[in-house]
Structures are given as C-alpha cells and as structure tokens.
Batch of 2 targets.
Target 1
Amino acid sequence: MATRSDLWTTLTEPLIRQNPVTLQILGICSALAVTTSLATALTMSVSLTVVLTLSAVIISLIRRHIPDTIRLIVQIVIVASLVIVIDQVLQAFFAEISRALSIYVSLITTNCLVLGRTEAYARHHAPVPAAVDAFGNGLGYSLILLVIGGMRELFGRGQLFGWQALPLADAGGWFTPLSLMLLAPSAFFLLGGLVWAIRAMLPEQAEAPEHEPPADVRAAE
Amino acid sequence: MTDLWALFLSAAFVDNMPLTLFLGLCTFLALSKRPESAIGLGIAMTGVLGVTVPLNWLIYQGVLAPGAWAWAGLPELDLSYLALIAFIGVIAATVQVLEMLLDRFFPAIHSAFGVFLPLLTVQCAILAGSLFMVDRAYTLAESAVFGLGSGLGFAVAVVMLGALRTRLAYADLPAGLRGLGIAFVLTGLMSLGFASFAQMAVSQ
C-alpha cells in the first residue's frame, strides 16, 4: 500500500529530477511546435495532462484484462478516443486557440510521453499511483513548455499572455523584438540551453563521454 | 507536373518535418547517434510515409469525408472526427504488412533496418503526414508526392545530424551539454540553415 510520502515523491520526482522532456527525451515533438506564445503552450499543457492522467487511470483499471500481445493497440485506441474528445471540446469552446494549435492536438495520440507512461507505469500499478504519476509527468512537461513559451513570447514580441510586458521601440518604448525567437531554431537552442542548465545543477544526469582520450594524452595535459 | 515537383521540394526542404515543423523529433534524436542507423531510419520513414499518406487519402475520401456516404442515401453523414483512429489503424497495419513483406522477400533489407519499422507506428511525423493531407485538401497524386517528399526530407535531415554527431564524439564538451544538449543545439543550427530554403519558395 502506497503511503502519502510515496505518492508525494511520485508526484514531484518528474518535475525536474526525472523530467520527461529533458531527461527521458519523451514528447519533444509537440513541446517545441506550440511554444511560440504562452497561451498555446498553456492549452497544450492542459490538454496533454488531462489526456495523460485519464488514459493512465483507464489503462490501470483494466490492466488485468488486457492481453499482453495486443496491449499497444488497446492503449493507442484509448488515447486516441480521449484525444478526439479534447480536440472536439477545443474546437467548440476555444476556436481561435484550436486553429493556432492546428494538428498538434491530434498529435498527442502519438506523443511518446503518453504511451511511455502508460506502458512503463500505469500497466503495473493501481489507479491512484498511476494517476499521480501521470499527473506529475504532465506537470513536468507543462513546466518545460511554459518556460520555453514564456521566453519565446517575452523576447519575440515583448508580451506575456498577450499583455505588453516590455514597451516596444515602435511604440515609443525601448525594446526591439527579436524575431528569431518566433522561428523554429530558437526553440531548439532554448531547449538545449535548458537541458544544459538542469544537468549543470544535477551533474549525475550528465551523459558519460563516448570516447575517453588515451591515458598518455591526459597525462600530458 | 511542375506543381507536383514544387510540392515535392517544399515538403522535403521548406517544410522539413523535424527541422521546421518539429515532427518526429523523438526518433530523430534517439537514432541519430550513428549514420548507419540514421540511414536505416530515413529509408524506413520514406517508405512508410510514401505508402500511408495515399492509403489514408483513399480511406478518408471513400469512407470518412462529409458526404462520402451519399451513394447509400446518407448525404449528411460526416465521419471525419473518426479520422484519427482510422489513420492510426491504417498506419499500424501498413507497418506490420511492410515488415512481413520485407521479411519474406528481402530478408537482407529486413535485417538491416527492420528494427525501426515497429517504432514508426507511434511516430508523430507519420501521423502528421496524413493529418496534413486532410488539412490541406490534397488530391491523390499530390498526397503521394507529399508523402515521399516529406519522408525524403526527414531522411536527409537525420543522416546529416547522424554524421555531425559522429564527428562530435571526440569533442571535449562541457559535461552538461554532452549527448542530448548538444544534439538540440546542432538541430537548431541545421534548422537555421533549412530556414533559408523558405526564401527559395518565395522567389519561385
């Protein structure tokens, strides 16, 4: 039986230490495409967290009844159905944001993060820990998305959630927007920098070098 | 004819899947450590995208699109919300069939890059190919060209990144940047290069 502190660890571990995006390379595809502004990043984070948590609960509830051979298909169908529901809800109530996200909401289906968590955790655990784990991973993902989305919107347009945080030079202020921040390359650079920052804080996560220089070279240095 | 060629170039370079649309990045980064595995992944991607996009076009136009059931007296039936599940099913089935065919007739090819095929079932770039096909209302010929073009664009990008990362294997990087971090920075630099192809599309 999981105690309260176990659940707390399950929830907080994926936030930074076991972050799904920066450590496990899961779900990057959608993480970068939707981060040109905070509003789309937030919508995407909420949608993903909802889908992830619900699918983890459903799969964990029926985990004893899924035959091992067809489990991937079962999981994909469950995730895809949830995504269709979310997509329809967004189209109905948030038409503008839904257009901005275009196909990336549907792509939550093939987000490796969702399948990764259901496959690795929900399939072997009771519904409550499974839900907590999924929710924690969703939050970890959201954290990265919001940090990158915030930086791109702030430096690319001088705005936060559409509110003018830095006065633009065109409008008599001092800030000249960096349009590179709104283009694809900046997302890669920012995420690379973020990975570097996290690994600088937690050195045990750094990857071992593939090739050690020969001993005599090192002795000479 | 020239239109199809332009579409091919734009799918392969201007709208390059991993570098400008951020699609399929998970496998893009995971399998680009060696050029050999990158080439295998590129070939598999081109094959699967080239087959599944036109196949999904047939399914969508024949069964799911609004008005597809008009011949059966159901002109109002609109099943397009089922597209997602249908596409995933078609992709999973295609990948399975491709794997079996390769195993039976070309065992050498199968042993070379067969391991990448099952991975492609849950690859966002493959699903995105079909979703874009619906979104942009392509014809059958266009969707085949689009599928092949984006597959080839992915292959070019992943082989280039694989080659770059091999060169960096001996570089003395800061510990935190090793592996994933530097891969992101490299991808960003490549993406910067591919951004110049956008100018090519404008000047046409």
Note: Residues 166 and 172 of chain A are 11 Å apart (CA to CA).
Target 2
Amino acid sequence: MADSGASSPLPVLHAPVGHDSAPRHVSGEALYIDDIPEPPGLLHLFVGQAARAHARVSRLDLSAVRAAPGVVAVLTSQDIPGRNDISPFAGDDPMFADDEVRFMGQPLFCVAAESLPKARAAAALAVVEYVDLEPLLTAETALAAGSLIEDSQTMTLGDAASAIAAAPHRVSGHLAVGGQEHFYLEGQVALVIPGEAEDLHVWTSTQHPTETQHVIARVLGCPDAAITVEVRRMGGGFGGKETQSVQWAAMAALAALKTRRPAKIRLDRDDDMVMTGKRHDFEIDWALGFDDDGRLRGADFTFAGRCGHSADLSHAINDRAMFHADNAYALQSARIVSHRARTHTVSNTAFRGFGGPQGMIAIERAMDAVALSLGKDPLDVRLANLYGVAGDLTPYGQTVTDSVSREIMEELAVSCGYRARRAAIARANADAPHLARGIALTPVKFGISFTTTHLNQAGALVHIYTDGSISLNHGGTEMGQGLNVKVAQVVADAFQVPLAAVKITSTRTDKVPNTSATAASSGSDLNGMAALNACDQIKARLADYAGETFGATAEFTRDGVRLGERRMSFRDFVNGAYLARVSLSAAGFYRTPDIHYDRTTHKGRPFYYFAYGAACSEVAVDTLTGESRVTRVDILHDVGRSLNPVIDLGQIEGGFIQGLGWLTTEELMFDAKGRLTTHAPSTYKIPTAGDRPAVFNMALWGPGENREATVGRSKAVGEPPLMLAISVFSALTDAVASVGGHRVMPDLDAPATPERLLAAIADVRRRACG
Amino acid sequence: MGRPIRFLLDGAVRELPADTDPTLTVLNLLRYDLRRTGTKEGCAEGDCGACTVALGELADGQVQFRAVNACILFAPMLDGRALFTVESLGREGALHPVQQAMVDHHGSQCGFCTPGFVMSLYAHRQAGGASDAGSLSEALAGNLCRCTGYGPILAAGAAMGAAAEVPGLAEALVAIQPVEMLETGHRGRRFLAPRTADELAAVLEANPEATVLAGGTDVGLWVTKQHRVLDTVVSLNEATDLRRIDDLGDAIRIGAGVRYADARAALAGLHPEFDGLLRRLGGPQVRNMGTVCGNIANGSPIGDMPPALIASGATLVLRRGAARRELPLEAYFLAYGKQDRTPGEFVEAVIVRRPEAGRVFRISKLSKRFEQDISAVCLGLSVGVADGRVTDARIAFGGMAATPKRATACEAALTGRPWTREMVEAAAARLDDDFAPISDMRASAAYRLAAAKGMVLRAFLESAGEAPRVLDAQAVEA
C-alpha cells in the first residue's frame, strides 16, 4: 500500500479521454479497408442478385458474363470447395443460392473482374430464368403457413392466464413494430490477399473476426489456421457486421483462392441494403391484468418476429425480446410466447439491442394503456411496478438484486420538472388545438451478457517491450464505440504508465483466437478483464523478479516502479526483467462468472447484471398532417463507475438518436413482390442533426457502481441507451391520446411516421366521439 | 480535342487531360486516381455527405466557398475552381482548427462520416456562416452520422472559430479562369461547357440529343445509381449570363444557372415562405449545386420548387437557338416524364412573381424527415381575399399526381366564396376530385389526400393566426 508521500494513481482509468483515432478520423488519415492501397493485380467483385423473392432457378446461363471484357472469374455454388454455408450455426444460409431463391436480392453468383465497372457490366449479362413460387413475405403469412426457423418458445412465471382473469382490471392490445436498417456509413467491404499454399489474409469490416475465419475455412474446405482475419476498425457496425459481414469476405476469399490474385468486394449502398439483414420487425399481442392502483397481477405477450429466409442469430434475438418483455417491471405472473417466422425476405440479424427493444416497447405500450384506463399518470403506474418496489423475480427465474430504476426515475422526474411540465402540456393542448403535445418518462433495464453462455469469454495479448512501450491486442473490434481506448486505459492503469505508452493494434485471429463477436454491449466488460488478466500475469512474474532481485515488492506508480526504498523508471525496470530472462508477454483470458441458462425451460441466470437508465421526452404533433417534433429530452443513465465518461456519453446520445430514428422516421418498405423499395438514404431516413431535440440534457447517474466485479466497477453501455428512445414513442402516444381527451388508447404502430400519427389521431377522434 | 481541365488543389494548379471521362466523379478521381482517400463514399447519391468537399469559386472577384458532394460532381465541373478536401486542411499533429474542434468535442466515433462533417463545417466557416445552433444544424443537414447523435459535432462547430482567408487564392483562381469553352472527350463521349447563353443555345441546337447538365444533383445519379453512359453532356454551369437574377420590379427572373443557395435570398425577398422551403430543400451540398430551373426542367412530380412557383404565377422561358418562348409554368408539365420541351431547347429562366400584398401565400412540405428529404406532398397556395371573400386561388401540389399540378376543383370551390374555415374545409374536400395520388414508399394514397386537405386547412388557420407550426414548436415552460 502507498504510504504517506506516495503519489495518487495516474488519472487514467475513469478519465474522460477522447477516442484514440480521433486525430486520424478528422484528418482523413484513419484507414478503412477501401482506403488501403490497392495491391497489384487486384480483382474487384460484383454480386449477381436474384430477381425473385421465392423461385426455382430453372436456368442460370453465365456464358456471356464469363466472356465479357475484363472478367477473370465467375463464381457460383459449383465453385465452392467446402460447404456452401455462411450461417453462424444453423447450416441454413447458402453463400450462393443453389436452385431455390429465398429472397429478392439473394446472391446467385459473383463476378471477379479487372475493375468494378467491368464486373458490374458483366453481371448484367447473366441469363436467369425462374419458376415462380409463392413467397411468404410477412410474419403473419409465414405463421399461417407454419413456416418457422424453430419451434415457438414459451417462458412462464406462475399462472398468468388465471391471474389476468382474476384481476380487477384488464387491458390488451396489438402493436406492430418496424425493422431498422443499420446504415453503418461504411458499407460491407473485404480485401483478401493470398499467401503461400492455401493461406489467406483477410482484411474485413466485421464485428466477428473469428467467425469470419471459421466460415471462410468451412466454405473453402481448409483449416481455420490457414485463414488470418484482421480488423483495424469499422466505419460503424451496430450489429450489422456481426454475422452479415462474413458472406462478402468469404466470396472474396473464394475468388482469391481460385485466381491466386488479391480480391476486393465492396457493396454499394443499395446492394448493401438489399442483401444484408436488418432489425427484426415484430407483431406483438399483449394483455395485462392489474388492480385499482395499476399494480400488475399478470402479463401475457405473444411476439412474432420476422426472421427472414434463414436463422442467422434469430434464436437468440427473439429470446432477448422475451427476456425484455418485463423491462424494469415485476410482472408477478407471465406467459411470454415467441414465434420466429421464416419468410422470403432478407435474413434479419443483430442490431443494437438485439430483440430487447421489441420486447421492451411492448410493456411500455401496455403501461401507457394501464395508466390511461385508470386515468393515472403513466409515471405513477411505472413506479408502482418496478423491480425493487413490486417484486424481484423475472419471468426467466433470475432474481433482480441490483435494481436502481426507482432511484433513477425519481431523480430524473425532479431534475427535468416532469410533473409541472405534464400540467403545462395539458394547458398548452387546451390552447392550441392543432398542435398536440405529449410527455413520457420511461425506464430501461437491460440484461448484460450473451444469453448463449459460452460466448461470455474473451482473450487479450499484452507485450511489454524493453523500452517500456506496451503493445495491446484483444479479441474485441473497434466500430467507433471506443472499446480500444477503454481497454488501453485498463492496461495503462495496471502499469501506471501514460496512455500514450500503450499501443493499440488491429484485431487479428492469429494473435487472439476463438473470440466472440464484439456484441451484446460486452466489449469492455470481457476484453477489459482479459487484458487485465494478461497484465496481472506479467505483474506476477515481475513481482517474483522484484522479490528475487531487489528483495522488495514492485509497486507501479505514476512516478515509476517503487521497490521498497528504491525507485526505478518503468523502462529500466522491465528492461532489467528482460535481462533476467523474465517473459514480458502474456495471453490473458476471462470468462464471466456465475451465469447459466437452460433454454429448454427458459430458466436460469442469463445475465451477470443489469444496466439501468431513464429518459423523459416531450413531443409536439401537428394534428392536421401528423408531422411531429421532439422538443426536449432529459436522460439519466447508469454506467456504473464509468471507465470513460466522454465515451459513455457519446454512446448514450448516439444510441438515443438511433432509437429515435427507429421509432419515428426510419421505415423499411417492401412491395408486394418482396422488393425492398427503401434501399438508399434518398428513401430511408435516419435522423439528421435537425432531428436532435433542441433541448437535450443527459447525465451519468452519479451513484452508479456495478455490484459485480466488472472492470473498474463499470457497466456496459453500447446497447441500453437505444431503448431510452421508447420515451419518445410513449410521448407521441400521449400526444395522440390528448386529441381524444385521454379517453381512448391510441392505436399507434412504430415507426410513428406522419402517416401513422395522422391515422392514429383520426382513429382516436372517431372512437372518442363514438 | 479541347484543352485540359484546370483547377486548384490545395492552392496549386492541377490539370486533368482533355480526354478525361466526362462523367468521372470527383470522388473517384480523389480516391482512386489521386489516392486521397480521406473523402469517403457513403451512398453515391448525394444524400449522406460522407464525400463532402469544398469548392472555392470566384464571384465578383471574391472567393465563395461551398460544400458539395464529390460523389455526384463530374470532374470537368472543377474547371476554373479550387478544390479542398480533408487532406487540404491538416494532418495528425498539425490539425486545422475545425479538425481540432472535432477532436476536442468528441465529434467522431467510427470516423467514417467525419471527413465529410469536417468539410461541411470548414465550408460553413469559410463562407462566414453563423455559429448559433440553428445555423450549424442547417449547415450539417446534408451530412449523416449514425454514431454520435450530432451533439458533439454541433459543439465542435460552435467552437471552431471564424474564417481565415486562404492567402493568394483569389489571385490563383483568376489566373486559371477559362476564356474559352471547355470541351473534353473520351472515347467519343464529350463534355461541353459553353461560356454564354448564346453559345449554349448554339451547342444544344447542334447537339439536340445531348444531356443538359446543371447542378448534377439529378443527372449525377443517372451515372452513379443507374450506371447510364452519357454520350454528350452539355453543362450550362459556365454560362455566366445564366447565373443572373434580374429584378423586374414585381417579379424576378432567375437564370438557368442560378443555384438554390444563390436564389434563396431573392426568393425570400419575394415572400418569406420561400425561405422555409429552401431551408428544407435537400441539404447545403444539394442547394450549393442544384438549380431552381433544373428542378423544373427535369419534370419530376415531386420537385420541391414547382408547386410554390406555380402558385405564385411563375412563367418559364424556353429557348432554342435564338428563339424564345414563354409559358405558364404549369403548362410545361405535360405528363409523367414528358415536358413541353423540344430537342435542342432548354429552360433559360423562370420568372417568379411577387405575391401581392394581402394575399394568403403559403408553402408547405410534407416528408418523413424534416431535413434533406423528398416531398411526399408539397403545397403552394396563393389566395386573394377581398372583403372576406376569395377573389382568386392558385393552389398547386407536388406528389399528388404524375406532374406538379393545380387543384382546379379546390380552387373553383374557393373562388367567390367566403374565406372561412367551413368554406375552406369544403373546398379541401374537393381535392378528391382533383387528385388520385399513388401509394409508394413515401406515403400511401389515402394519407396523401388526407394530409393535402390538412395542409390547405392549415394554410387558412395560419392566415388567421390560429395554428402554430410544429417546426416552430418549443418545449413547454413549466
């Protein structure tokens, strides 16, 4: 322990330091894959897409494609030496469609040519004939036809049906929730450079280098060890590069293997939006039973998620919707049914929140309905049902022991003036009949851990060089979330060296193997602890060295290494250790303790802990056109003891605005033939700067501290803030309800476009008068 | 054939050979020919701003800075201009104040959109733009960021400081101003940029099949999205006499080369409603290249300008060779994809009349997103009211038919009747007779009709001061 006169720790672990790449982001020097100088002989790939949602391919004549100028290779399923399967686990996702086409835009073949324009022009010469089959485009039609990716799942707590039937009051409803395009600014891209024998070096924009490696090996029929996958950074991921980046890297790998030339694939925006999956859209039926005070007796949810043509990660995504059907509330009794529809549309995939948002929005809609039916303030109904207030047992059998929802919500309600503003809005609505205002304060409780338990592991590799500089590598990937700087902070803190002494390196499968995707908000929790473990191993060796050589313990301080009375620079100390033949390199490992889950019974402790937050949103709606604006937002969010407050605030604001887009302006449209008609930013509208509310207050919750032994007692932050935007949807619901004097519950689906809002207003007017 | 394309890059003269591909985009030129990869492709349709670069252009001896989308800017359009990319500003260790402000305020996360934001901020700063939140938000309306939620970028903009003159730039630009028509060719395909309206008229008469290029915010997409090969492209951007806005007293005459950004003040001077429309038309990059006349000439049923211009009684000047004709704007739109324009003829100007004092003049645009979105429905309404009665009405809609179109049944139902809510509602109901809109990804037919009625009613309510606009809504004071 430090005695008097010892220096305080280096202010690095919980410090507000900026993104390590920021100076290169702003100067354009940060390299993305398409920025890497193109190697000589590079081939450019272009994918030939199916023009039907469901059909048999009766003829695929690529002779004109092969003969076109500049074409070097044309690849189909027949050219695959291994297995034609790019799925994460289910074995149901071909890289190229064989005889059956299962969604419009599905890859049939790809062209490798001397230039991208030549590849594109050649692909247009393909002759494809189809025998049309009936497509199942929506979850509803798929369920009616019995088309599922797996059996429907049920989670139960007590006897919900009886509890609801016996409750003093009941409400029920239906909610349709739209999907969401990731719209990472950097589209899918990969560059593959062949080495000796069957070795391939794969540069790709992926959240999951290990799976990319394994799938390429599977497709090519070669050992995993032949494939090295490297990721320096992504231009955004959001879940869209967890599995769905793999297919393109595998195509480029196949082209490189076949031609022995470097190969690059880069999807343009339209092709990317057509060929890659999105957030699942859901149809939700819900029913609640409750008492006179709005306290729940039981809840019944039936979810139907549109999964698309293959399983992808839909099992776990739909599971997570079930896990979050309670959000922050003790349901008392529950029946949660989840149908996973297999449709003839692009395979939906991970997206920030991973099903959680769809589960959570259902219970928040239900809370609004309970409050309206009792004439209560929805905030009071929410507060009365929180874990820690009304109970602690989740529908999946985990006991909630760390709930801070009530503290956060009550603090936020005061700081944002919720009660007074609610009254002011009622007055404003009476004065301005064509502008309906609304307000809502909603909580978020989000379970942290991969619910597939074995994924909760991570590795890191730390080298200390003899000049005292440190090379840091770990299995996590950087997509803008600031993972690398956070893990570097952990390492700098461990050795009490300046952050600049820790060199951040690209993620590589030949440095840290068998990693999980950077997903589930787990990046810092898992990789931070793995890096800490590596540091601890080295420190243990250095402690032995210090004892043997100096007869003292080694204490790492901001002023160098203290060895009893001696003081030595970090550089001299580690160089001395090197000369004494001490290894200065370690592979760290971490696995999350104490979690388990039995998917057959849907019981266990799937989550290590929960992340909490709350947001209050105020909106205005034009009752003549349905246009809306968010006029004010206040957020209070718990990140435990923040590893890095500026990075965490960036995640909170960015997540909120992304959630705002999901629930308001972002609308995916498919036509009757299954063609995506919103496949570019001209038709698919993510929020712009002007959509950011003029008043936007956010803060990290001061008392936050993780009760579990996470790195620095911090909490995960990647996903939870997205769901704070549900407060906007509830506020819009409140505004629409005001048109009918809060007498009838609005029938408003998501996204709440002007069109849906105007229809809901007309419907409320009709019912309120009737 | 011809001469090299001559422009400034980082202040130094660069030349592109006379056989440069006429539709080579500046984005591809930068990324793949010049190896300046800081400028990114996010959408290749001018909708995300990741490729934003700044152009310096001489105007009355001064350098005017504009943010533009490199993805839909053809390389020959650089001729006589100064190009600035993110690499022009600074490097790690020697960052430009705009870049440093972005670092200081954590304006980047994944970093891919960042160079585009830096360049939009830089152009805004160099153009002397204001640093209040509203001005900055407007300056960034053409840039999409999926990570930050924009707050940190707006904070960086507020902290980036004032413009700094680029020394010697005006002189260097003067030195490369072309004196003769740019004419480049590539495998039989040509790019021609006449320097006067007369020269343009002659070139188009001689090349009636040519694609007429103005700002390229539409034609650019024919190349980048539809992958069309354009054989002869005739740019009207260098015809300096088409860049004029003439004050005709009760009207203004806007030349074919006048870009939205340059027309905004003049149109707002006719009526403030035009300012609100132009604020929401595209983003700055689109308004800095696209032209008012181009928005008419291409005949889109969802162009933002025609409904308001038709309502104001605008007329269009068409020219072929030396022959000019003038027609009411609404008469130009014949059917979907078909306009009253003969081969070799071009839109030379639009004459926009000032709404008379006392008229109810309203423009409203409906879209899923407020900024940089295409209209689902767009309304221009001009109603004369005397002694409480409607003397005449001009009500035009975009997005309701295959062309921009007047609502004649609605107009007739208003004319001569009292200007009251009841009469307006009755007249709005007649929109059912005027229009049979389509359902598409922007809106359903039913919503278009319902909202169109609401927009007409809103125009009445606003004229009576009874309906605040949702765009102006602010949080309540408790």
Note: The radius of gyration of chain A is 27 Å.
